[in-house]
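Re: the multi-chain job from yesterday

Posting the exact lines I submitted so nobody has to dig through the queue logs.
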Amino acid sequence: MTAEATEPQVGEQTPAVSRVRMGTLLAALASRAAVLIALVSVVIGFGVARTSTFLTADNFKFILIDSAAPAVLAVGLTAILVMGEFDLSIGSMLGVGGASAVALMSIHHVPWPLATLVAVAVAVVVGLVNGALVAYGKLSSFITTLAVGTMLVGVEFLFTGNTTIYSGVSPAYLKIGQAVVGGINVQVWIALAVGLALWLLLERTELGRYMYAIGGNREASRLSGLMVRGYLVAGFVIVALAAALAGIMITAQNGASSPQAGIPYLLPAFAAAFLGSTTFRPGQFNIPGTLLSVFFLGVVGSGLTMLALSTAVIDLVQGGILIFAMLLSRLGRA
Amino acid sequence: MTSVAEDTVAGGSGPAGAPDPLVELRGISKTYGGAHALANVHLKLFPGETVGLVGKNGAGKSTLIKVLAGAVTPDAGSNLMVKGAPVFLRGPRDAGRHGFAFVHQDLSLGLAPNLTVAENVALGLGYPRSMGVLYDRRRLCERAEEVLAQLGVALDVRAPVGGLSVVQQRMVTIGRALSQQANLIVMDEPTVSLTPAEMDHLYAVVDRLHGNGVAVIYVSHRLAEVFRLSQRLVVMRNGTVVHDAPADSVDEPSLIRHITGVVHHSPAGHRRARTAGAEVLRVERLSVLPRVADVSFALHAGEVLGLAGLVGSGRSETVRAIFGAETRAGGRVFVHGEEAAVSSPRHALRKRVVLLPENRAHQGMVSDFSIRANITLPTLSRHRSARLGRFPVPSRSRERDTATSFMKRLNIKAAGHEQRASALSGGNQQKVIVGKWLHHGADVFMFDEPTQGIDVQGKEEIYQIMKELATVGAGVIFISSEFVELERVCDRVLVMREGCIVSELTESEISEEKILESCFTTAIETGRGDTAAHAV
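And the result, structure tokens for all chains:
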């Protein structure tokens, strides 16, 4: 009865609707491409202000290299955010990943492949611990990973004695961060490869579908027979591995490891993933969005530095731009 | 149908002879979409009177309470009078200001478990102050003790509410109502999950409220206690008051008749007799804490078995436990005569047992997913791409084929298989979930309230699906609170009350009236089951 009553009304509205629709179309575009629009705007802005330094191929190469390790970290983080969980231990994990490899090579003279393998193994253990505590121990991932992160700072201390290590790093290891392939630093290729791999995983495999389903409705997923806890553990292992890889890339680039190097990478990774969730597929974390957002944050950082502003102003503007991009994406939605 | 709503506006204050009513509802109506939740309800409430409010699920009791609480705004033309003056409630605070207090069935509404008894009693009323800003703990406790003493309740007012028993927590809620100087207290199923001794305690408090001149609306499915406590009985059905008379002027059988209404008997031939086959599911002495105790039954191939009962009787917990979604406290489950562990939904699915859960949005589907992704969620590994061989990579085109075939078969109306499930109507959402399980395949299909909130045509389609499943040899369990549909679809009906199966109806015995009768029959005959259900 009710269905019959409402249908004619829809038909009557059509002429008036078309004008409204243009507006919503633009708003929908803004909401789907918020970060892209913001990126183009800041490139134009900085380009006008600092044409000779900002708009150069070299500058964009630098931005890409600087964004590579953060991109690997943020892409890994996306895999756990997709399931509606947090991982705050990634900063410390990044630190442990790089520091353990460097310390083993430098202090204990372990050959570089083995040292790198140990770093990877540590990451797997950390992921399993985080995952087990959250999935089977039913602890809040927010607090659990904060606690595990704190413990990882201690682990890093055990490896390095809290000193900066800059000698005894194998030249082969340095290549992970410094080699140039096809005219571009190998780190950029690594980041793209990791991005592509996780994109394929999330978008094209059963595991990825299940991860999105768990994030969308955990109870419905469980009642559909998914191994929710197993996938949660897998997600935590993926993000820990990505963090370790990012740590290896950074220490390889610097040829050194400094204490607690990972902490400054933590929040930008979250910023990029959340910003990315406003773009391409609004409301859902997605790899292309995360990658674009990492690059966007890199461009903003580079441009603001070139304007020779004070650190205080840079921080204020950086935060403001983030908020602006998020607001832009809200336009198309209620 | 109800064009009566306006003609009562003109009425002035009450008649001179009778005592003035405290609260008067004049022609209260509430429409959702096209459906009347309340249709022209008239009701007077007097100080010091306990009114028992009864009716089956969906009769309009909850909506009526929500109107009094200011949580639901009635339709235009409705009039609510308090002490002879018209009143418009904009929200719960307004209801409190007029002296209305509510004891909800769900204790999480209204109590802060981390605060003490005294703090909860005074919650929202303003705490006594000392030196302007600090609150005076001593006076606060004294006040609470005073109020609880009025109720005859001895409680440590300094203890946190979270550690109290259910009945003690209800007493705290009632205490708060008293300290608000409430003159109307509405209690919604206050004895659910109480032990017999706790119930007696609560009854004593209700009697005391009556003595103190407070008006009480007492909502309950247990007719015995309604008779024991009320001076007046009000029965609601289909959104209207169908009976309003002193409690001693009516007996239990006639009250049940008022509750159920006239049942138009559908001809017996309406239900096509299916030949029940071999046993597909057997449940032995199943218990789920805190609600289900000692449930045993069998389900046969080709049978639609109805599971009836009032909300809270343990039907959902029973099927959830069979599906492994709820932890069993005891009992065994057999599928095809073999004991099945069913410790998780995953196990149950492997045994070809599926559950269509009660709450579509929270348990049944991923709202952000497309129709396609929802249908293929449990069967995704059957959609692997042929090209990539054994890799766990779903093929979009295979998924699309599955989705479109089920959309066609189940008549799912949508823009396409990529439409988000959240954008569908309730009926189409339900059909997507049905499609998901049809594609998975099973020998036991359990449907928990599958027709809730679905239009008439959608309901018919769901009935048809259940019948077809039985015809092709599956066993079907159908839970519904609308007993008419059980009457229409089921070959056999089990009635649950307070966690136990209390009766079994077969073939010609199945009627809405009979089912309701079993749901309401007083606890006297089955005393054993009741105490077992509550012994936690």
